[in-house]
Design brief:
This protein is α+β, with helices and mostly antiparallel strands and 401 residues long. The chain contains 13 helices and 18 strands. It has an eight-stranded antiparallel beta sheet with strand order 13-12-9-10-11-14-18-16, with helices on both faces. A four-stranded parallel beta sheet has the order 3-2-1-4, with helices on both faces. Strands 5-8-6-7 form a four-stranded antiparallel beta sheet, with helices on both faces. The longest helix is centred in the middle third of the chain and has 17 residues.
């Protein structure tokens, strides 16, 4: 009998996962508030409901199943809605993380408190309840400090505070980017950062992807923290990777995730990995759908689909089959109104460009970047070395006008 999988969120970054699910014979359902979401056209069925509204989604899902249709698995890709996913899994008695684990993933302060209780290495942090408390904390901690919303995503409201940044403005900016008006600060650990993608299976962590995050625009877009892609494979050796995997496993278990996908933000400080955040979902930015398979041969999305359907996973399928050099970089056009896009035909002809996407269309207004959704598009390039892959990606970015 054909199985059915529900994707929470039908954004453009979910399309590759929907396509993969359809390619293996699954019946696909997408839920999204936007009836024009890309996934709404591509999936076999569609539910109109907010991805962040758990009760709204649950109500629609229960109506769907009451009509005689069954849902065998639920997941999200590039959409930070683990609580919606976990709540549906619980209601339908299908595989998924607990709602308690999902709630931790949605609340950075609660997550960090649990990590601290369980001795998971993290930067020092503190919930800030008023502006005066922020000022006092800066005096106590010194600069630089990261200020961010407790419950936002996509780097919205995340700022690096230095003595040159208006503290009162920073406080208001972070607070308004929190759905619950909650703000926290974090000690800035000066070190390289790594994005990871892992699957927990029976309390063991298997990390399939390590990407060296690129922050070349920290000064240009200060105080906003804007990432400009990443490079695979990581430049770090197997010893560091093993340390990162061990820390990710401890962090996942601290959150109660014994079986599930986890996306990690890691900083290497004084030679040791620290957890900045852990997300209980597959990542966006085409990391899980494109970069990891291109670089390692690991079908992360396919295995995540198996996991949410309760099917067995061969752990050997999560081990890299090879290491190819992959570089992703983003487009940051100057602010203004986009009138035209030239040069796309060059990307089509360039055999080193594995994938590209332009998010904007002529007529749209381009703002100064303040968070990751501000990025205008991206390219993923390959090369026979790390430097060549990077050069190919940068050349592609420069070719587009």
């Amino acid at each position: 009998m054909q199985k059915t999988i529900l994707f929470i969120g039908g954004g453009i970054e979910t399309l590759p996962a929907i396509a993969q699910a359809k390619s293996i014979g699954l019946y696909t359902v997408v839920s999204d508030m936007d009836v024009n979401a890309p996934g709404s056209y591509y999936a076999d069925d569609f539910l109109k409901c907010s991805t962040y509204d758990v009760s709204d989604t649950l109500s629609n899902v229960m109506d769907f199943t009451a009509s005689g249709k069954k849902i065998d698995g639920v997941m999200c890709v590039g959409t930070d809605v683990p609580l919606t996913v976990a709540s549906i899994a619980k209601a339908l008695s299908i595989p998924g993380i607990s709602t308690a684990s999902a709630e931790l993933a949605m609340d950075k302060v609660a997550m960090k408190k649990k990590f601290r209780e369980d001795s998971v290495p993290i930067p020092n942090f503190k919930r800030i309840k008023c502006y005066d408390e922020l000022v006092k904390s800066i005096v106590d901690w010194g600069y630089p400090i990261i200020i961010k919303p407790v419950d936002s995503r996509g780097a919205r409201g995340v700022l690096k505070l230095t003595k040159d940044v208006d503290k009162a403005w920073a406080w208001e900016h972070s607070k308004k980017n929190s759905p619950t008006n909650r703000v926290m600060i974090e000690k800035y650990l000066d070190g390289p950062q790594i994005s990871t993608e892992s699957i927990m299976i029976n309390r063991k962590c298997y990390t399939a992807g390590f990407s060296d995050r690129n922050y070349e625009f920290l000064e240009k877009y200060s105080p906003y923290i804007i990432e400009n892609g990443g490079d695979l494979p990581t430049k770090y050796n197997n010893q560091i990777k093993a340390k990162i995997n061990e820390v990710l496993e401890r962090a996942s278990l601290s959150m109660g995730i014994e079986n599930g996908v986890v996306k990690g933000d890691i900083v290497i400080y004084n030679g040791e990995p620290y957890v900045i955040e852990l997300a209980a979902r597959l990542s966006g930015g085409y990391f899980c759908t494109h970069q990891i398979p291109l670089s390692t041969g690991v079908d992360l999305v396919g295995n995540a689909i198996k996991l949410c359907l309760g099917e067995d996973i061969n752990i050997n399928d999560l081990k890299p089959k090879y290491e190819k050099f992959i570089c992703q970089r983003f487009f940051f056009p100057n602010p203004g109104t986009l009138n035209y896009i030239n040069g796309l035909e060059q990307l089509e002809k360039d055999t080193t460009i594995e994938y590209y996407k332009i998010y904007l269309k002529p007529g749209q207004k381009v703002e100064e970047p303040v968070s990751h959704p501000s990025r205008a598009g991206m390219v993923i390039a390959s090369g026979d070395s790390r430097s060549n892959a990077r050069k190919n990606a940068i050349n592609a970015i420069n070719a587009i006008k």
